Structure formats: C-alpha cells, structure tokens
Amino acid sequence: MIRLIAAMDTNRGIATDKGIPWKLPGDAAYFESQTTTGLIVMGWATYSEFSAPLHDRDNYVLTREQSRLRSGFESIATLTELMKSHPNKDVWVIGGAFVFAETIDRADELFITQVLEDFHCTKFFPDYRSGFTRFEQGKDQEESGVRYRFERWRRSIEPRIGL
Ligand SMILES: NC(=O)c1ccc[n+]([C@@H]2O[C@H](COP(=O)([O-])OP(=O)(O)OC[C@H]3O[C@@H](n4cnc5c(N)ncnc54)[C@H](OP(=O)(O)O)[C@@H]3O)[C@@H](O)[C@H]2O)c1
Fold it and tell me: How far, in Å, is the centroid of ligand 1 from the Cα of 25?
C-alpha cells in the first residue's frame, strides 16, 4: 500500500520558502507513531532538511543525483524501482510538494494533518478531494494557538497509473 502523509493548511499549503511554518509537537508525534513500519520515501529537498534519518526505518530519497546522500539514506530514481525491489512492503511518502504531486496518482491512502489556518505557503499538496473520500476525522485540537486535526482519506476512484 502507498500512503502519503502530510500536514497542510486551509489552502493545502505545506511549506513556505523557509520550510514548514508551524511547530506542532502533537503532529510530530503522530507522524512518528504512524510511520513506524514500511519504507519512507522523500524528495531531495525534504531530505536536505533532515539532520538524520528517521530512526529504525528505511529512508529512501528520490533524486537524480545518486551519489551525494549522507549515511542512513539511500537514493532511488523512481518509486516504481523501489516497489519492484520491495514488492510486499508498504510505502510512506512523506513529501515534499514535488514528490506528493508525482506520487498522488498511485496513493491508496492519505494521512492528512489539517491545520485550520492559512499560513500563506508557497508549496502545496495536490488537489485530492475529487479522488479520495475521508473515512476518519479526529477531534480538533490546539497547540501554541494553532488548531488542527488528523484525517484519513481513502482512494475512491481507481488510480490513473497502475503499478
Ligand atoms: N507540511 C508537510 O507535511 C511537509 C512534508 C514534507 C516536506 N515539506 C516541505 O516541503 C518542502 C520541500 O518540497 P519541494 O517540493 O521543494 O521538494 P521535494 O519534493 O522534497 O524534493 C524535490 C526533489 O526531489 C527529487 N525528485 C523528486 N521526484 C523525483 C523523481 N521522480 N526522480 C528523481 N528525483 C526526484 C528532485 O531532486 P534532484 O534534483 O536531486 O533530482 C526534486 O527536485 C520543504 O520546505 C519541506 O519542509 C512539508
């Protein structure tokens, strides 16, 4: 199964030019707890913001430059390549905007932290509402004055691209 996990604001914004504009420890804990099993896939720009790989997980980075990663990260050229070499593994796509846009057509589920405010982002999660149906919605919660909730969405129409 391919799952995308993202936190987004009311305009589907996921980051400004300076990175993710909110600090939500509850969301970070949720991310950790959800992604403990399966392969982690991220884009090069997201990778470059990590000081270390996500512990106890296999960290894969989509990049055309295969030889420049730090220890603990492995490069892949395409998601298809990874799925072929790990046919029975679940995949968590963790961003950023470029990689979400490239992979959403193949996603089975979306784990969305819906931040209930506009942060004037410059990078966005793709439009997903027509292809997915929400099947879980957590209670609204608040941290540092920012309200948010956890949602899960499942594909409601067949992926456009097969594996
Ligand atoms: N709010 C959230 O949930 C969330 C989650 C994650 C990240 N973010 C934010 O998103 C921002 C980064 O997003 P972004 O769109 O700029 O970058 P990104 O998606 O993290 O990375 C894009 C790069 O990944 C490589 N790449 C992507 N697809 C590829 C493919 N199919 N084959 C080969 N290489 C591929 C390319 O780099 P090469 O030039 O190396 O080929 C591309 O320039 C950051 O600010 C981060 O903080 C937010």
Answer: 22
Judge if the beta carbon of residue 63 lies within 6 A of ligand 1: yes
Q: Which of 63-67, 71-75, 121-125, 138-142 has the lowest mean pLDDT?
A: 63-67
Residue nearest to atom 33 of ligand 1 (CA): 63
CATH assignment of 9-151? 3.40.430.10
123: Cβ below 6 Å to ligand 1? yes
Are 27 and 14 in contact by the 8 Å Cβ rule? The answer is no
Ligand 1 centre from 147 Cα, in Å? 26
Cβ neighbours for 37, distance < 8 A, ≥ 6 positions apart? 90
Helices (H), 24-158: 25-34, 44-47, 79-85, 97-103
